[in-house]
Amino acid sequence: MKYYSLNHNAPKVSFKEAVIQGLASDKGLYFPENITALDASFFDKIESLSNEEIAFEAIKQFVGDEIPAEKLKEIIAETLCFDFPVVKVENGIYSLELFHGPTMAFKDVGARFMSRCLAYFNKDKKDSKNTVLVATSGDTGGAVASGFLSVDGVDVVILYPSGKVSDIQEKQLTTLGQNIKALEVDGVFDDCQDMVKKAFLDETLAHKNLTSANSINIARWLPQMFYFFFAYKALKSQNKHLVFSCPSGNFGNICAGIMAKKLGLPIEHFVASTNVNDTVPRFLENGKYDPKPSKATISNAMDVGNPSNFIRIQELYNNDLKAFEKDFSSYSYTDEETLVALKQIYNTDGYIAEPHGAVGYLGLKKELEKHPNAIGIFLETAHPIKFLDVVEPALGITLPIPAQIESVINEEKVSVKISSYEELKAFLG
């Protein structure tokens, strides 16, 4: 499998090279040269397959012969060592819970898969290191920190916007030490992401062997396909069309879902549910892609003004807006609407959501008006405990502290404050 840059001005590369480089030399995101649909027999028997078997079939064509099959199966087993329950919330609506991993966020899967791929590729490099440089709007940082902790040959530098992640999210990315370093940026997520992209293209930093663990990296992005296969397996027996609503910030998760559909997974429709950072909903309304500076919200992991992965979605539809609109809708919601939804889900159904899941629920309810006989699934991308400052007062409850959070909540935060690219460059050396 070869990968090409979506800016079409860089050489094609292998899976290994795409993972290590992260971003192409022309600033473009990598995209697979071919996408081959899975055989219909795979979907016929999917209920009898384990999650590990499903994931292997979904990902193997994208890895090719860069990682031997048995090693790839081992990486997948280590990646998927927790559950992905599909929980009924109300008639016709389910929550796909993606927060049962070590940092209680959906990004654990991509971070664990990528870290193990990179460790495999580095196994014979005794005298050099890769530096994983990543920007986070919330959960990416913690997932990457956990996934790469103590991985040989890899240093991790995480940039996050000061005061714009939750306390627990901040603890998860600033307390682990060892090969993990956190930079607290005076700005918003888009500033962090811009610094990371600039560093990748800075030839004076070539000796740092920089790569990304954001969803711009194919090894972080592609494994997110697995979730949609798992949900289909759980709900297939109901023999109904499926509508997925993804809380969307950088659009990596929903892009992976569309990739799953291109592999043959029978998904009726996708909903990208956003907060007031509504670049994509506005694009669908007026056909103009007009990114704006991100705004802070209570669903902070979606505070992205210029979602990187949207270009991949456009590529999946060959920039055919009509075909895209047939499969895809996008709606935005305010913090006030999000809080109302949190309370409604809890008071009516007894289900404790968090702000991102509540936004996903709102978008799903709206879209299901057009698909009255379908089953709706909204993605719960993080555990409510990560947003206890919002969830507890909104619902009038006290959340128990899970073991994964207890292990970091009382640790001392260690971060370095920066406000410019020059300071990042100086830190990297």
TrEMBL record:
<comment type="similarity">
    <text>Belongs to the threonine synthase family.</text>
</comment>
<dbReference type="Pfam" id="PF14821">
    <property type="entry name" value="Thr_synth_N"/>
</dbReference>
<dbReference type="InterPro" id="IPR000634">
    <property type="entry name" value="Ser/Thr_deHydtase_PyrdxlP-BS"/>
</dbReference>
<dbReference type="InterPro" id="IPR037158">
    <property type="entry name" value="Thr_synth_N_sf"/>
</dbReference>
<feature type="modified residue" description="N6-(pyridoxal phosphate)lysine">
    <location>
        <position position="107"/>
    </location>
</feature>
<keyword id="KW-0791">Threonine biosynthesis</keyword>
<dbReference type="InterPro" id="IPR036052">
    <property type="entry name" value="TrpB-like_PALP_sf"/>
</dbReference>
<dbReference type="GO" id="GO:0009088">
    <property type="term" value="P:threonine biosynthetic process"/>
</dbReference>
<keyword id="KW-0663">Pyridoxal phosphate</keyword>
<dbReference type="InterPro" id="IPR051166">
    <property type="entry name" value="Threonine_Synthase"/>
</dbReference>
<protein>
    <recommendedName>
        <fullName>Threonine synthase</fullName>
        <ecNumber>4.2.3.1</ecNumber>
    </recommendedName>
</protein>
<dbReference type="Pfam" id="PF00291">
    <property type="entry name" value="PALP"/>
</dbReference>
<feature type="domain" description="Tryptophan synthase beta chain-like PALP">
    <location>
        <begin position="94"/>
        <end position="368"/>
    </location>
</feature>
<comment type="pathway">
    <text>Amino-acid biosynthesis; L-threonine biosynthesis; L-threonine from L-aspartate: step 5/5.</text>
</comment>
<keyword id="KW-0456">Lyase</keyword>
<dbReference type="InterPro" id="IPR004450">
    <property type="entry name" value="Thr_synthase-like"/>
</dbReference>
<dbReference type="InterPro" id="IPR001926">
    <property type="entry name" value="TrpB-like_PALP"/>
</dbReference>
<dbReference type="GO" id="GO:0030170">
    <property type="term" value="F:pyridoxal phosphate binding"/>
</dbReference>
<dbReference type="GO" id="GO:0004795">
    <property type="term" value="F:threonine synthase activity"/>
</dbReference>
<keyword id="KW-0028">Amino-acid biosynthesis</keyword>
<dbReference type="InterPro" id="IPR029144">
    <property type="entry name" value="Thr_synth_N"/>
</dbReference>
<feature type="domain" description="Threonine synthase N-terminal">
    <location>
        <begin position="2"/>
        <end position="79"/>
    </location>
</feature>
